[in-house]
UniProtKB/TrEMBL annotation:
This is Nitrate ABC transporter ATP-binding protein. The keyword NADP does not apply. Pfam families: ABC_tran. Belongs to the ABC transporter superfamily. It comes from Chelatococcus daeguensis. Keywords: ATP-binding, Nucleotide-binding, Transport. GO terms for molecular function: ATP binding; ATP hydrolysis activity. Residues 4-234 form the ABC transporter domain. Gene3D superfamilies: P-loop containing nucleotide triphosphate hydrolases (3.40.50.300). It comes from the Bacteria.
Length: 234
């Protein structure tokens, strides 16, 4: 039972150089699976993410998420990017609550049950090592702390699908590996489907159940490997 399925998908940008960003791309990710997509810069990884979440619509091919064709931005998805993109005029906690202000049914509930959502946000912050930091503004946090907060924001509405586009790219090696463990524990606990885009093979093999390798020009999946060797637990 595929949770994310792309079949023969081709997409080109109007303002691009004429080459499709992805071409005849197919892939299938099972529900609850942790998938990684690896490939060189510019091969179409971000485009694949945008297509899977309905931020871009393909020129050709079909895309199903949770069994349904993607016809609008996918609300059951949470996303975190290389750049944490927290709003500077909101505290960290208020940044975490942001998706709830947009996505139903949380939007209507937030007015009545703000306290329970705040408690949930604080629990999430504690899980990623940011206990008690919710009142700080993003610019009072280090890059690694902002990245953790942005991960919490992606998780606050309990998405069935979590998309991570190079979320550890800008971090120092120590913080990065610490966050790998955080993500792995979150996945073990929640069992949401995760798609991680990275050019770090070590990161992919540490985290993912299945690795898709992409080529550039044409941007498509050229290999798929199941990671079934035991990995260290802390
Ligand atoms: P990756 O994430 O693997 O680095 P991208 O999906 O960002 O790759 O880009 C794939 C190709 O599509 C690249 O050639 C890139 O220049 C092009 N591209 C990406 N986004 C746009 C855009 N908004 N407009 C035009 N071309 C784009
Ligand atoms: P990533 O680090 O995810 O590979 P990129 O550096 O490829 O991201 O792209 C950064 C931003 O610039 C993205 O929003 C992408 O859509 C946009 N972009 C990338 N390539 C092009 C392009 N050739 N023309 C216009 N926009 C682009």
């Amino acid at each position: 039972n595929a949770f994310v399925a792309l079949k023969d998908v081709t997409h080109a940008y109007g303002s691009g150089d004429g080459f499709p960003a992805v071409e005849h791309l197919s892939l299938s990710i099972a529900e609850g699976e942790f998938a990684a997509v690896v490939g060189p810069s510019g091969c179409g990884k971000s485009t694949l993410m945008k297509l899977a979440t309905g931020l871009q619509f393909p020129r050709a091919g079909t895309i199903l998420v949770g069994g349904a064709p993607v016809t609008q931005p996918v609300r059951i998805a949470g996303m975190a990017f290389q750049n944490p993109t927290l709003l500077p005029w909101r505290t960290t906690l208020e940044n975490l609550l942001l998706p709830l202000e947009i996505v139903e049914p949380h939007r209507s509930r937030l007015k009545r049950e703000r306290g329970s959502y705040v408690a949930k946000a604080e629990r999430l912050l504690a899980q990623v090592g940011l206990k008690g930091q919710g009142g700080k503004y993003p610019w009072e946090l280090s890059g690694g702390m902002q990245q953790r907060a942005s991960l919490c924001r992606a998780l606050i509405h309990e998405p069935q699908l979590l998309l991570l586009d190079e979320p550890f790219g800008a971090l120092d090696a120590f913080t990065r590996e610490e966050l790998w463990c955080v993500i792995r524990d979150l996945h073990a606990e929640r069992r949401m489907t995760v798609v991680l885009v990275t050019h770090d093979l070590r990161e992919a093999t540490f985290l993912a159940d299945r690795i898709f390798c992409m080529s550039a020009r044409p941007g498509r999946i050229v290999a798929e490997r199941v990671v079934d060797f035991p990995r260290p637990r802390d």
